[in-house]
Amino acid sequence: LTANRFPPARPSPLTQKPSPPKSVTINKTFQLNSRNMDIPTNHPIILFDGVCNLCDGFVQFLIKRDPEAHFRFAAIQSETGQTLLKKYGMSTEEIDTVVMVENDQVYTHSEVGLRIAGKMNGLWPVFSVFRILPLWFRDPIYNFIAARRYRWFGQKDQCMMPSPALQNRFL
Fold first, then answer.
1. N or C, where is the chain less crowded by C-beta within 10 Å?
2. Phi and psi (nearest 5°) for 152?
3. Residue 152 DSSP SS3
């Protein structure tokens, strides 16, 4: 018998617990692109399909329910979105999920919605209890909807442009 041909399995960022928040934040930004744009990392960043009506509706839903401006947003098609996807080794061509970057960890599919629910005001955090369900059960439901999102909800010709009042929430 020969040695195992497959590299050792890496732990998935989806199963790792994020590191606890530090009590002191010192210049939490990183440089991303040729324009030397600083991207704040002290807020969760939500990457979404900017031409998808369902995804756009999801972002509008979050903005209305996030008065403390906890979340930042970037369309996957934007320079910032593309750079973040590359930084975390994700495809920039075939993406069928909302992505959340938080504490240098990347979350996708059903994990994003449940993590976001846990950070919202009101009764929304109750939904985060569904994180106890395994991904093999949750993600097929997410994937079923994601695969049909354009057919069911339609799509736009271009990404939405945030109003001046919301400009600081979009990267």
1. N
2. -80, -40
3. helix
